[in-house]
Each structure stands twice: as structure tokens, then as C-alpha cells.
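Researcher: I'm comparing several assemblies side by side, and this is the next one on my list. It has 855 residues spread over three chains. Same procedure as the others: predict the full complex and return the structure.
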Amino acid sequence: MIAFIQTLIDGIMIGSAYALLALGFSLIFGVLRRLNLAYGSSILMGAFAGAAVFAQLKSGGWIVAAATVAAAVAAGIYVERLCFWAVRRGAAIASMVSSFAIWMQLEEILALVFPERTLAFPPLVGSAMLQVGPFQFRSEYLAMFVLAVAVMAALEWLLRATRFGLAVRAVTEYPEAARAMGVPVARIAFWAFVLASAIGGTAVFLMASAEEQVTLHTGMALTFTGLIAMMIGGIGSLRGAVLGGIVLGVVETVAQAQLGGSGREFAAFGLLFLLLVVRPGGLLAQDFATRDAAAGRRV
Amino acid sequence: MGDYYVSVLANIGMFSFIALSAYLLLLTGEISFGQQAFFGIGAYASGIATALWGLPFPVALLFGAGMGAATAGLLGLLTLRTRGLYFAMATLAFAELVRLGLQEWIYVRTVEDEPVGPNGVDGFRGIRYVFENGITPGVFLIVIAGLLALLLVCFALAERGRIGSMLRLVGADPLLAATLGIDVKRVKVLAAAAAGAIAALGGCLFAHLNTYVEPRNFDIMLGVHSLAYGLIGGLGTAFGPILGVLLDVGLLESVRVFQGYRMIVFGGMVALLLIFMPRGILDETRVRRIAGVWRRGRARARHHAEA
Amino acid sequence: MLKLEGVTRRFGGIEAIKDLALDVPAGARLGLIGPNGSGKTTLLNLLSGVVASDVGAIRFDGERIETLSAHRFARLGIARTFQNLRLVRHMTVRENVWLAQHSLPAAAAFRRHAPAEIAFAARIAALLGELGLAAVAETPVSALPLPHQRRVELARALARQPKLLLLDEPAGGMTPAETREMGALIARLVPDDVTLILVEHKIDLVTRLCPRIAVLDFGRKIADGAPGEVLRRPDVMEIYFGRAETADA
């Protein structure tokens, strides 16, 4: 029992990073109604930039974090301009395919620039084990959890208490009405993308710090973690994205503890498949599909 | 013909199958990230048929295609209520589950004093039917081309007749289709099964040419690629997805200078293309226009001949 | 041939159709009028199987059909047009009308020269001619003005040779002259043995084509009879013109 709860705790902590990935992914999808398949590799660029800075300067901390987030945002802007802004309205599938093509492109750029495949990443905190009762908390994961929660809280504030946040919510929930009310949808989309890239950059920074390394070709896993977590929690709900991330983290960690390596993936995809067949909307779905269908659009 | 070119053409041929598989589903309005599952099921099933059960190749083809159709039909039934993006994710999840399952599955038998068969993560070696029967890659290429040609003929006939119209209407406006008497659910499940069979066929050919397959071959990358081929080449005709495969495999393989920068160039090209042609190159409108021009050209030629 | 008994359909908290009873004999021409939101389109959706009733029975030629799916309704011989037009915009007039082919028996699909196919092709050609669409048969429907587009919808429905024809505002958005033309076309082209239910706002068109009208208000049927009587009823007039007020000069 204790072991199980320990696994739960570990799962929640890693799930907090997944929640950030899901939030970033969800922000883009909510505002643009398009899938960004280049999400993972664009934020991975950030992580590698951070690792490169670390390799040059030999010290970690804020400068590495800043480099990671900045590079993730830069890559995100590249993707947004080429695959989303430039593709005309109503061509959601074209955007998706385009982002897939750029995903490939970014992966190859990374592979060329970093032939070593794996780079070291500075840890956030010294490696230590906190003991609270019978439970252990690894300091790296604890730091990750605390910072992730802080980012989520900041995002929540941004969305609830600022005009930008209001505009984002309007465009997410009622795009046609927002457009008709004069909300500059394209500009909001751009900044939402920037925000999502920043959040994603933070997520990979936290994950890389905990693992103390970054590896090539994890772009796909990052994208699909975000996508799966979003679907588990329900499309269109940022709270759902957080819930989905935590659920995914827990399911993966528990499955890994019980079933080993591939059991983890098996559980993640099995859960997703079951949910989609039984409850297609996800756990907290806002039922975009019906609303959009009623408005004459198809997801 | 040089070995290299045979290999490139064979790849174009085999990937055309999975591209056409995703295309068929796209016609009925469904985006599938999971056709690679049936490619893999076809590969494994047909490999088992020839290497473990000693069946002849044509039988293995039928068996592989049948398994692909059956599993795809089953998935189609399970996901009848799942729409749009949710369906796409369900197919992706299913395909990954199949891949993970193949990673664990071991079914090894001793054939002629050697262990042969799917061996989990190590894959499935020894699918040597083609070489044991003296079929050279060149000859096998003809088999691939022949089957693909047959498939394209089927698509062409369907497009000209009622089936093509029905599939596209189900994709474009399922409500209208239903009020015109089309059983949308049945069409979708049957299309899914047919698409599964087509992908499986490609997998059979792939397994037998390469003599070795592993679960890693059938990952999400293959699935997204097969979807992209149709979306880039255009959905107006079955030649659209083939055009997509040609662009990817053919153009870039044969231009050696891009080696190592292939995806950087190709990725950029695709992104630019989609800005100007978001529905792909041979989309419905363009195909119509080409068909119209061709028809008028023919009428004019006939007119001149009669004059 | 069509009977509705106690049919109710709710959307969320609203009863779009409440406890509706209707008896339509074969060959009848029934007009359906009522203010916006009274449930006319919902009723057509119920009659074409597009939505299912929550309560009640729908009988078609004696058989209960309310649990069937939309394509079964269509196969029973029920055809409809849509208020907002459901044409495939990039296809030509001829191709849109040809969509009616999906009601033909499937087996004939492979035999171009089967009698059913030949008859169908002839029927389409005749319809296009009668509806004045022959000249634009190869034009994409998106390039045509609204009245022509509505005729294409009508042609598609008629090409199916339905037993029951449901027309949802076939003259919507048309001028009085265009409306009269449409009325003449409907009167001429709908065979006598076909049952017609016509939803319309334009009272002239309805009274011209239908010897019987039913009035819906807030999902309930409040009148059913000959136009002359129904339109003179105070409750019907109140819907359209408001309650008579004491004159204030």
C-alpha cells in the first residue's frame, strides 16, 4: 500500500510537467482549433539551446532557463508563422500536415547540430531525498512539481485577470462571436502561441533538469504526451488539460512500477483508447464537437 | 536495372499501398493516424503464413489482407461513435497498442532446424519465401507494380461509378447522404475494412521483400507519413496519394545531394506548398479542371479529325 | 399514409414539438405554417428521420418507423429539401441532381445498361429540362443565383420518385415573381400520387398549392383544416398580426 501511494506521489509530480505540456498544447488548440504536431520538437529546441548554453558557460540556473524558454519561443514563432498564420482559414488539416513537415525539419536540424544525441543538463537543485513519514520525495521532482504549479497558477491569473486572458478565452470558446466583436483573432493566436511555447519550454526545462540530460528524438513523445493528456482531460478545457496531465503521469508511473517499461506506454495508450471509445469527449469535455458542428464547422 | 533504383521503386510501390489506405478513409471524412497498424498486421500475418506454415505466397497475401480487413473492420465498429479528432486519436492509440503488442508477442517455431517467427522486440526474421523461390527483387517489383495497378484500376472504376460518389458524399455531408438513403455507418465500417486490407497488402509485400520486419517499422511516423501523402498529393484522385509518395521517396531519394538535409528541404517545401495549395496538389477542384480540359481537348481532336 | 401520434421532441429544456397528432392520407397536399421557432423544421426533421422523437409514434403506410435511422426513412420513399440548402457547392447542377442515384438499388450500380439506370438517366434529363436547368447543367451550383439553387434541390428530391415529399421553405429568399414561378413548378412537377408536406412562410404559396393547412405554435398544432377556415381563426391571426387592440386613433 505504501509503495502504491509512493508511486502515486511520483506520478503526480511527473504529471505536473505533463500538465504543463498539455496546457501549452491545449492553448494552441483552443485558440486555433488546429493541431500543432511540431510542438514537441520546437520546445525540444529550447531544451537543447539550454544544454548548449550550459556546455559553454559550465553553470546552470537562470541563464539556462532563459535560454531554454527563449529558444522554445523562437522556434514556436517560426512554426506559428509558417504553419498556422500563413495557412488560410478553414484549412486546419493543411496546418496539421505542415506542422508535421516542420516537426521533421526541426528534428533533422537538431540531429545535424547536435550529433552527440544526448547532452547534459544542469539540475535545478542538489540531489536529495526528502522524507515525510513513510514517503520519499526526490528533490528534483519536488522542485519540478512546485515550479509547475507556480506556472499553472500564473497562467490561471493571466487568463482570469487580464484582458489578454479574456480575449484568449473568448476566442477559445466562441471564435465566431469573438471575431464579430472585433477581437483581433490573428494577434491573439500569435500571443497564445508564444505563451504556449513559453509554457512548453518551461516544461522541458523542468523535465530536463530532473533527468539531468536532454535526448534527441523525444520531440514526438513530448507532442503526443501533450496531445494525449489534452484528450484525456477533455478538449477545450484548460482545467481538463491539467487533470489529463496528472492522470497520465499517474497512470504511466503506476503502470511502469507494475508492468515495467513497455507497460507504461501500454497503459497510456490503453487508457486513451478506452476513453475515446467509451466517452469520446474526455473527462471534462466542453463538447466543442457539437458546438462547432452546430456552427457549421467540423473539427 | 540498378539495384538501387529497383529498391527505390519498390519502396514507392509499397508505401503507395498505405498511402491509398489512409486516402480511402479520408474520402469518407475520417483522419486516421493508425493505418500503420494494418501494414504491420499484414506483414506479420503473411510472414507467418509463408515462413511458419509453409503456405504459398498468394495465399499469404490473401491471409494478410484478410487479417487487415478484419481488424480494421473491428476498429471501425468500435469507433463508430467517435468523431473527427477523437477518431484520429483513437486510431493512433490503437496503432500504438498493436505495435506494443507485437513487441511482446513471441511465436517461434522450428522450421528446418532453425527457430523462425515473431520474436517480440527483436522482430520477425527469416521471411525468405521470395528468395527461396528464386524471385529476384526485379521480379518482385513487377509483382508490386501489378498489384498496385490492379488497385488503382479498382479505385478508378469506383470513382466513375456510384461507389466513389457515395464515399465522397459520406465524407462531405453525412447528413445529406443519410437523407438520400446511404447507410453512413455501414459505408464507414466497410471503407475502414477495405482500407485495412489495402494497408495489409502493402505490409505483406514489405515483409517479403525485406525478409525481416520489427515492430519499430510500424510506428507513428509511418502513420503520419501515410496520411500526409494524400493530404499533400491531393484527395481528388487516387493518384494524389501516389504523387505524395513519389515526391517524398522518389524525388528526394534520387537527388543524392540532399542526403542528410532531406527533411530540412522536404519539410520546408511541404510547408510552403500547403500555404498555396492547402487542399493538396491534385485536389477535387483541380482534378475537375484537368478532366475538363482533357475532355475538351479530346472533343476538339475528334472535331478536327471529322473536319 | 402518414400518421403521427403524441409525438414530442425536446432539446435541452425546450419542447420543440409537443404532443403532436397528424393524419395525412396518400396524395394529400398539406401546408405547414407557423412563426419562427414554432417547430416546423423540427417536424420535418422528425419526418425525415434526422432527429428522433422522445415520445410518440410515427406510422408510415401502417408501419411504425420512429426508431429507424435517417437512411431507412429515405429508403422507405421519403425525400426532403432543406431550408438552408444542402448542395455540394463545387459540383455541377447535373452532378448534384445525380446524387439521387443513391436511392437506386445497389446491384444496378455496376450495370450501366440496366433498365433502372436508363430510366433514371432519362428522368434526370427530363427534370432538368422541366425546371429550366438544362442550360446550366454543367455549371457549378455555387455560381448560380438562389432560385436556381432551390430548383436543383427540388430536382434532386423529385429524381428519387419519393412517396412522401417534404419541402422546407422552397421559396425562401425569393421575390414574389420567383415565388410564383416556384409554385407553378411544384404544382406541375409533383405527381398526384405523391404526398406533399410543404413548410412555408409565404401564405400565398401555401394556399395556392395546399387544400389543407396545419398551424404550429410553440411546438403545438393549434389548427388543421382548409385554408379558408384556418386563416380566419382568431388564434391563428393573433400569431401573425397580434391581438386586436382597442383603437386609439
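Model: For your comparison table: The mean pLDDT of chain A is 86.
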